[in-house]
Amino acid sequence: MRILLIEDEHKTLQSLRQGMEEHGWTVNTATDGVLGLRLAFQGDYDVIVSDITMPGLTGIQLCEKLREEGIATPILLLTALNHTDDKVAGLDAGADDYLSKPFALKELLARVKALSRRNNNPIKTVNILTYQDIEQDLDAKTVRRAGKEILLTPREFALLEFFLRNPGKVLSKTDIAEKVWDMSFDTGTNVIEVYVNYLRNKMDKGFDTKLIHTHFGQGYMLK
After folding, report:
1. Tens-digit pLDDT profile for residues 127-136
2. Are residues 48 and 77 in the same domain?
3. DSSP secondary structure code for residue 123 in this structure
4. Three-point CA angle 145, 150, 151, nearest 5°
5. Of 77, 89, 156, 221, whose CB count within 10 A is highest?
């Protein structure tokens, strides 16, 4: 497995690189966002692991530029920032997962492996999902309700897709975290609630029939 590791703290960089190489992975490294972006464009990597706070280019900016160029390599962000808004910003920028510092090397390796498996085994999907008066075009990346176009961020789009694939089923926060972002659920964050509320405000506001419902203590349901 080929990994691009971008981290400006030298000691952390060497420690993570050693741990990855001991698992037989090939690791290329960069100590700033600009060099990291250049390597990402030049190489064919299975997963990119990047710190958020770096000189030259932040991890969030790096995600945005890669996604703008159509590079879909899974990205795991490492962050010392524990605020929900910072994590939401990273996910909206195109990151697939995040890991808060400090973390155990074992957990980092597990997250990277999970992202690699998803990258190597893409799920084939139908082009259009529908439920009641909602229509989601997975190819055109558009959403309509009762014929009205609704603009969603990439994360809101992915969350709606998960709901549309599981109508009438209670989806726990853990289900959403693992299936939409391929990450373990962190009980110390309210990222899931934030995104469900974002989506609910866009999909239900202005319509008589409310489709996204909260089941307190259990999760959420499209019904």
Report:
1. 788 999 999 9
2. yes
3. P
4. 160
5. 77
